[in-house]
């Protein structure tokens, strides 16, 4: 399969300090990494780590907001528009400095009875972000996240993500299809992914329900990836799972799914 893998170093190599995970990912055979929130580290330090390891950084998330207060993104949170814009600007600054092409714009936690109101906020904030992304040649992603792990996360449905992408109607806005979340929120992956087609800008994988290596659990990841390939997806696949034991020892799922790493024969 043509997919390039990117190691999610917020989850992989959990036994190592974050800054040591770049070298570990390269030694394991990856040539690309993604991560969630790199903001506690100066961009200069991150750039050194990427260069030393010979890695591309493919994706980061927008800052969550006030984590102690339970924020998990701000894009769909009514009344927090100014903070959203500041947090998005910070993500753009990191992405540009690190030549990172994709930013996952996190929607945030919104009570179900405010969903409709939040939808307007989300669309307006995404329009603002998409315009900046278009100008800078970046892609912004929205990711449906399951309600078992993140109750009340605003965006949990693939179909709603597709409708929002169509409404905002920007070439810079795409869906992050994390197969782990999508399986928990309704399954039927092959048919539903085919329906959203070229709205998909990034894919992530993990086992369901364990969120460990993707060769475990109820989804045949290789089969779903082949269907995505047949449907025309040719982007990245993010290895975003929590290793059962050692990260390197668990990489056998890659060959089993019909994928390969550039640095491993
Ligand atoms: O949880 C996920 O799945 C992600 O991809 C993160 O970006 C958000 O936690
Ligand atoms: Mg994900």
From TrEMBL:
GO biological process: one example: glyoxylate metabolic process
Keyword Isomerase: yes
Ranges for domain Xylose isomerase-like TIM barrel: 22-255
EC number: 5.3.1.22
Keywords carried by this UniProt record: Isomerase, Pyruvate
The keyword Isomerase is annotated on this UniProt entry: yes
UniProt cross-references to InterPro entries, sorted A to Z: HyI-like, Sugar_Epim/Isomerase, Xyl_isomerase-like_sf, Xyl_isomerase-like_TIM-brl
Name assigned to this protein: Hydroxypyruvate isomerase
Family classification: Belongs to the hyi family.
Organism from which the protein derives: Methylobrevis pamukkalensis
């Amino acid at each position: 399969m043509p997919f390039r893998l990117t190691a999610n170093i917020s989850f992989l190599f959990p036994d190592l300090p974050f800054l040591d995970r770049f070298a570990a990912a390269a030694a394991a055979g990856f040539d690309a990494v993604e991560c969630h929130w790199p903001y506690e580290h100066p961009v200069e330090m991150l750039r050194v780590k990427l260069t030393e390891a010979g890695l591309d950084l493919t994706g980061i998330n927008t800052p969550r907001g006030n984590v102690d207060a339970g924020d998990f993104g701000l894009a769909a949170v009514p009344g927090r528009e100014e903070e959203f814009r500041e947090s998005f600007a910070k993500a753009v600054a990191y992405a540009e400095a690190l030549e990172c092409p994709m930013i996952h714009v996190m929607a945030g936690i919104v009570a179900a009875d405010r969903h409709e109101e939040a939808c307007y906020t989300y669309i307006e904030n995404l329009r603002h972000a998409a315009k900046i992304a278009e100008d800078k040649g970046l892609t912004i992603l929205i990711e449906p996240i399951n309600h078992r792990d993140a109750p009340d996360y605003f965006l949990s449905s693939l179909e709603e993500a597709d409708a929002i992408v169509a409404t905002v109607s920007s070439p810079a806005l795409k869906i992050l299809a994390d197969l782990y979340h999508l399986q928990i929120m309704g399954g039927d992956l092959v048919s539903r992914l085919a329906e959203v087609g070229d709205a998909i800008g990034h894919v992530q994988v993990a086992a369901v329900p364990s969120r460990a290596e993707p060769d475990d659990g109820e989804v045949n990841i290789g089969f779903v990836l082949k269907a995505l390939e047949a449907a025309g997806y040719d982007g990245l696949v993010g290895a975003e799972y929590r290793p059962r034991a050692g990260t390197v020892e668990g990489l056998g799922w890659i060959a089993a799914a019909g994928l390969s790493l550039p640095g491993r024969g």
